[in-house]
Every structure is written in C-alpha cells, then in structure tokens.
Known about the structure:
The complex is a heterodimer. Chain A has helices spanning 3-29, 33-36, 38-63, 69-96. By secondary structure, chain A is mainly alpha-helical. Chain A has one domain. The mean pLDDT of chain A is 83. Chain B is mainly α. Among the domains of chain B are: 283-517, no CATH class; 525-556; 728-775 and 782-942, no CATH class. Chain B contains 40 helices and 4 strands. In chain B, the strands form 2 sheets. Chain B has a two-stranded antiparallel ribbon with strand order 1-2. Chain B has a two-stranded antiparallel sheet with strand order 3-4. The chains are: A mainly alpha, B mainly alpha. Chain A binds chain B through residues 72, 75-76, 79-80, 82-83, 86-87, 90-91, 94-95, 106-109, 112-120, 122-124, and chain B through 778-785, 787-788, 791, 794-795, 798, 802, 926-930, 932-935, 943-945.
Amino acid sequence: MEFIAELLISLFLVVSGVFGFVGSYGLVKLKDSVQRLHAPTKATTLGVGGVLIASMLFFFLDTGHISIHEILIALFLFLTAPITANFIAKTYMVANLKQEKLPKSSSECGWSIYDKPPSSDEDS
Amino acid sequence: MLIIMALLPFLGALLPSLMIRAGRNACAIFTALPTFLALVILLILSPSVMRGEVLQAELAWLPQIGLSASFFLDGLGLLFAGMILGVGLLITLYARFYLSGEDPMGQFYTFLLLFQGAMLGIVLSDNILLLLVFWELTSLSSFLLIGYWKHLPEGRQGARMALAVTGSGGLAMIAGMLILGNIVGSYNLTDILQAGDAIRASDWYLPALILILLGAFTKSAQFPFHFWLPQAMAAPTPVSAYLHSATMVKAGVFLMARMWPVLSGTDAWFNIVTTTGLITMVLGALIALFKNDLKALLAYSTVSQLGLMTMLLGFGTQVAAVAAVFHIINHLTFKAALFMTAGIVDHETHTRDIRRLGGLRHLMPVTFVIATISALSMAGIPFLNGFLSKEMMLEEASHTGLFGSPSALPILATIGALLSVAYSFRFVVHVFLGPVRDDYPHKPHDPPFGMWAAPALLACLVVLIGVAPFLAEGIVTAAANAVTGADLHPHFKIWHGFTPALWMSVVAVVSGAILLLQYGMLDRVWEALPRPEAKTIFDHLVAAVVAGARRVTEITHNGAISRYLAIFTIASVALGWVAYSGGGLGPRTRDLLAVPLVVAVGWLMLIVATGYVVVNHHHRFRALVLIGVIGLTVSAGFVYLSAPDLALTQISVETVTIMLLLLALHFLPKVTPRESSLALRLRDGAIATVAGLGVGGLAYAFLLRDTDTISDYFIANSYEGGGGTNVVNVILVDFRGFDTYGEIIVLGIAGFLIFSLMHALLDGPAAKRLRARDYSQDRSHDRHPLMMVVVTRVLMPIAMVVGIYIFLRGHNAPGGGFVAGLVVAIALLMQYMASGFAWTQARKRIEYHTLIGMGVVIAGLTGAGAWLFGQPFLTSAYTYVHIAPVEEFELATAMLFDLGVFLTVLGAVMLMLYSLSRIARFAGETVNMEPMDYDPSEHVDDGKVKV
C-alpha cells in the first residue's frame, strides 16, 4: 500500500484514539453525572467514527471494495448514543431534582418525567 | 400363533372398559372372549407340545442389548398357560356375579386381563429380559388388582405392600438374571437351559442364585417375605382366588421350576430352597390354623402350600420335581375353589369371621359340598387329588436328610401336613358344621348358579383327578419333563402299599383331627403367645426407609440453590481430582506466549470486574452492570482469539440476558439480604476457590499441551460434508444437528416453563408481595419517551436487515439462526421497551407459543425430509444456484433447519419477556394504548392541545 494511504489511515486511527482517550479521561475527571454526559459523546462520535473511516479507507484502498458495514455501525451509534444520553439525563433528574425547584412548565402537559403524560388517562 | 396368544390378553384389555357401556354381561363376555381365544390356540398347540416338541416364535425388539420378543411353549409353559387361561375364564364368570353394581366392573376386567397377559408372558417368554419385563408387569398389574377397592385403606396398604415386596424382589431378580445372562453369553432361556454345567461351575453362581431366589421367594410369599400375601387379601375375592391359587404366587414356583435344570443340584440350592420351603410350610400352616378370617386362613394355607412346592423343588430329585408339578395342579384346583367358596360365604353372610359362622351346611348345601370336597383335598384325604401329591411329598421327605439329620425333615414335613389337616378341617367344621345360628349379619342362602359354577367345576376336577389320577399323567409328564429335562414316565397310583408316607399321612390326619378338637384350648395358648406382627414390622421398615430417603433429600436438595451448586461443584472437583490422580499429566509440549499489553489490559478488566461482582453481589443492579462488562470482555477475548462466531453469539446473548434481567430486577428487592453466617461464607469461598483454581489449572495444563481433538475432522470436512465454510455453523446445523435439535426443544420448553411458572407464581404467596409493593416512589412519569420511541422505530428495519443478513450468511461466515434470532429478538424487545407491552402486543400477528412450535416443527421436518431420500435423520443436502443478475449462491437444507432454530430462539426470548410483563401488569402497572406519552403530531405547534 502506498505511503500516503497508510498515513491517511493512521491519521484517522490516531484521531480516534485521541478522542477515545479524551472521552474516557473526561469520565474520570468531570464532577457529576450531567457534566460527565459530555465526555463519552467525544468517544462515541469522533472516537469510533475515526476507526470506522479508517476501516472503510483500508478496505477500499486494499481490496477495492466499498465496505458499508461501517456506515451501518455509525448509523446505529448516531441513533443510540443520543438516546442513551437522554436517558441518563432523565434518570439524573428523577434522582436528584425535585419538581419544586423547577420553573413552571409552559406546556399544558407539564414537565415530562414529573407530570403525568397526556395519554395516561386513556390507559386501562 | 404363540405371539398372538401372548398378545391376546393385552389387546383384550382394551375391550372391557369400552364394553361396560353395553352392560355388565357384555363386559364379562368380552373379557372372556380373548381369554377363550387364547385358550383355543393353546389347545390347538397342545398336542405337539405333549409329544415333547418345543414351539418357538421370535420377533426382534432390541437386538442390540439381547432383548427380543421371543416366546416358546414347552410342557411347563403349557401347564401354566392352561392354568392361567382356564382359571382366568372361571374367575371372569365368578367375578361377574361377585362384584356389586357399585364397583367399576370395566376397570376390574381390564386390570384382570392385563394381569393375565403379564402372567402369560412370564410363562411363555424365551428371553429372560422379556421375562423380567412381564415379571414387573405382574407386580404392577397385581398392585392395581389388589388395590381395586381403593376406598378401603386395607386395600391400598395391601396393594402397596405387595408391590413393595414383589417389586423389590423383582429388582433383585433383574440383577440375578443379568449375571446369568452374562455367564452364558445369551439372554435366551433355551440357551441358558443348555448351559447348566457352566453356570453351576461359575464363580458368580451363588450371587446369581441368591438374587434370583430373592425374586422367586418374594413373589411366592416364602418366609420371611410371606407377610404380603395375607395383607393382599383385602382385594376382592376373585382377585385373591386368581392371584393366590393359579397365578401370581405361582410365578415364583414357576421360575424355580424353569430354572431347575440350571440352578438345582448343588448344596446351596438344596439348603436354601428346601429350608425356606420347609419353614414356610410349617409356619404358614401354624398361623393359618389360628386365623379367624376365612380369607386369611386360606392365605396362610396358600403360603404353606407354596412352601411345600418350594421344598419339593429344593430336593433336587426328579421324582420330587414331578411331585411339585403335580401339586401345582392340585393346589390350583382346590385352592381356587376354596377361595371362591370363601367369597360366596362372605357375599352371602356379609362376614368372613369364622367365629361368627357355623351351621351353614343347612343354609348353603351346594357351597358346603364344594367347600368340603376342596378342603378335604387340601387336608390330603384319599380319593381326592390333594392326597396324591401330598403322599408323594411325604414319600420324598421320608428319605431326605437335612443338615445331617435323617429324621428332621420327615418329622417337620409330617407336622406341616398335620397342621394343614387341622386348618382344612377347621375351615369345614367351624364354618359349615355345628348348629345353625341366628345372628349372621345377613341371612345366607346359596348363590345363583353363575357364582357357584366355577368352584363346582374345580371341585369336580378335584374328585376326578383324585379317583382317576392317570388323567393328569399326560400334562404332568410333559411339564415335569420340561422342568427336569429328562424323559420321565411317572405313574400316579392311589395305593402304594403300607409305605412310610402312608403312616405319616395317617398320623397327620388323626392328630390333625385331635388338634381341632382341642382348638379352644390351643387358641387361648396362641393368643397368649407374643407374635411379631409382620405388617407393623413392614410399616416400621418402610417408615425408616422413607425417613432415610427424606434425610438424604433434605441434605442434598433442600431448595437452597447454593447447596446444589456446592454439591455439584464439589462432585466435579472430586471427579476431576480422581481423573488427575489416576492418569497424571503428560509432559509440556508448548511454550508460554508473551502477553501483549492489550491482552493484559483486558485481563485486568476481567479480573477487576469479577472481583467487584464477588464483593458487591448483594447490590443486584451493580452486579448486573459488572456482569455485562465481564460478558463484553469475554466477547472481546473471543474476537482476539479468532472466534468471531462465538463473539457474536456471546454479545447477543449478553444483550438479551441483561435486558431481561434488568426487567426482572425491577420486581425484585434491590439488595440481596445477607443470610449466610461467616463460617458458611468461608466454606463457600473455599469451595469456589478450589473449583476455580481447578478449572484454571485444567485450562492452563491443556493450553500447554498438544491434544488430539475432533476439531481437525470438522475443519477438514465442513465444506465437503456440510457445504459450508463456517465450521461452527456447520457443526451446529449438520454434524451435530441432532444436538441442536434437542437444544432448541429444550429452549422452547424453557420458554414455556417460565410462562407457566409465572402462572403458578401469580397464584402463590409471591403474588401478595408483588401487589403490596409500591413502585411509584422512584418512578419517572415519562414511561414512553418520544425520542426513544422514534429511534426504535427507525432502528427496527435496520436491525431486521442485520438479522436477516446474519441469518443468510450464517452457513459460510459468522452468524446463523441462533444469533439472528437473538438480534431480531433485541429489535423487538426495543419496541416493547419503548412503547410498552400492550401497544406492541396489539401489533403482533403470531403468538410466541406458535413461533416456538413452528421452529421445532420446521427443524424436525427438515431433518425428517432426509428420510424421503433414504438418508438418516438430519442429513443435509446443498446445491449452488445461479440466477442471472444475482451472484451464485448456495441453497442448503441446513438453512431450513437454521430457520427452525431462528424461530425457536425468537419465540422463547419473546415468551420470557411476555412472562415478565405479566408480572408488571399483575403488580398494578397501567397499560398504555398509545405508542408514546406525548405525540407532538397530535398537538398543534402553538402549545394548544387539539381535541
């Protein structure tokens, strides 16, 4: 393989490694759950993304095939990571924030998590 | 013909229960029909057997273990088959009139025919394994017959005792027969009978003899196993008459006669069998004399008479064997008749207590005549058949010494005869003679003809054989020749001249009569004597055994899973240690590899996570998270060691397990309470450490040595034989397809089991706790968040594609039905988690039960499809297909099989989820009908809610 190609792949790998490290370090360094939510986002997006791009490049340059597995992985990650973060935040709120400390919700249905959802009346 | 005859009673057993709807007469007729047909076949076959031929018929059953359904008919078999079928017919007739309208007659006749078939099987079997099968069948069917009046506690206890005694004897006999078969090298009776010398010379002769005799003695109620027979008298009288005159108890005698040429002739045989027979004869007669219950008297007299036959067989001489065979016939005739008359007396007077009877000769003249003839025959009065065989017995006894004493046996035999005279006379005198009483529980009169016809016929036989003994010579000769293997021509005469036997007989009759005259005094003495009560001893014994068994159960599986694990672990370690100390270790053939940093880090993670779980396992949630970490690290280990298939499976299994466990944890306490003491924890810790070090050491030892495994074969043949390059998948669906088939069935059963356990759980005490728990405290009201719902919907098709992809490529690359099933299950699980159970369930088309069933059926049908091509079950076929724009691809039947795996896995996982959600619903959680809590499309943008 050409030097340039190898360099390119290595670059993405290094980028991914750096962001993976930053994400992990953040987990240890940051103080509470809400702050810590920020850290893994680096690892899941740029960290894993770097590896995926490197992998696609490698297979394209090495065998000539365009590998789409990586796109799928990225898709899964991009879909699930925000949900995970969303759930962690919600959990944090349930555990640590009393509703009284919140400002009044402008929505008729109130705050999610704290107030009953609008559809619950229809529940049986 | 022979096989049909042997099968007829079993086939016929189907009829009575059906025909009872057509009435009691029809039921009896259809019971008699198969018996009668079998008897006709027997009569057709009998001339050739009487000439000395042996008829044989064979059907292969399990030739691999030497078990074949082979039957043979020789003289002995003919005699017994005739007795079983003939008396069977008479009993059928008698029972028709004996049983009252409240008794389920169809059931009775079914049991009777089953028993008859089992007995017939015993006497016709040419294979000792087959004989054992029938032997146990008689124990079982007699259990049903004896316990026929299941509303009576005596009936149930008697039946249980009979089953326990004869059944355990049967177990001993199985061992003895297996030894015998091992000595000879064949389980065929005809072969075994030829090998007498080899057997007697074998070191294993004595154990085999004792074990077989245990079986025979328990069945024939020989001392000290005699006690079950009188207890079995709680059965209806037809059963007693059948079991205890012609069939069940004679099975032991039959077996001794059958094995006579092989086992007899040694000192061991003589000492054991003769002594047992003698003791039984005297003891049984003594007890019989003092029994006040008519049937108990007859029962103990049967015990005594069986002892007589056993003793005769024990003598080991040919003449004694002839006498034994002759007595079998005679005993059958008079004892069956006596039992039936006892039944008639009971039926008419509503009591069997001799003390309440007497003077019945005026009220029941017919019964009186029958009973007298039979009882006198039992006493051994001339011109009745009992006299003939008893004379032969006394004659043989008079010149047989026992344990060095020439006079012991004749004296004891005479005492036995004397006592039997006394109890026979007592049966007649105390029941029928004497003044008519006016305090019978029920005013007696002779029963209808149908009821006394059978005993009358037998009484006629008693007289006929007694007066003209040559009539019985033919069948006795045939049977005796079959027993002894010699060519004998016995002649029965009434008058032998003034032989010692005659004097012994005279002494017996005279003193027997005197004994009865002094009965009142003797009875008081007897009552005053301490006697061990067999039933109490047996009950204590059974109670002790049950208590012992319960103690073992309590120690080994008391419901504490930790104890099961401890036992299992210790046993495995012990076995491993035994294996290790036996063979030791071969030399090391491999070197240790260097440890790369990445591996070291992974290892460290694993160790830390594992240690943390051990320390913190009381916090269930933390432990679960850590277990997830361990699972993922293990998966990574698989990837590192080039096992992508395992890694894939591991990851998907981990995911599903963690998800289901999380759901389950919701209903459980958050913390496991500390229940074990420190000592207990130390013990468990020690066990775990030893086991862990053992497994670790084993793995370490194996990794450093080259071993021959079967993997090379699989790798070499995977593509050629199974048509796939993914060896793991080919092993699963092809090489070891049968295993997989079994496993998916187990998985399906597990799914069903969880489902049904949930049913039980929701009815039990746990249900109350569930209902009482309050989940509202720490709960978010945001049950089905919008973002989650939307994303899972988006993910669903992608996950499905991944599932299908993994499924399709499974045969050649990592994947397969199992993983695909899990992936799709995860995709569906997400929908359930996002939108709730009710909403998702409403969108499901196929029941999960059906899915499991379909999976198993598809896999099974795929496997069975191979049969159509003359191949064994689960042989797979494959081909390569080329359709124009698509690349060439492979079609394998293994894929269909994999589809079955896929469906079963999916169904089982979803069924488990369903079970969990049932708990949730039970615990009072509400059910949603909407996919999400807050659907913005239903609400306008400016914050006002649409109606």
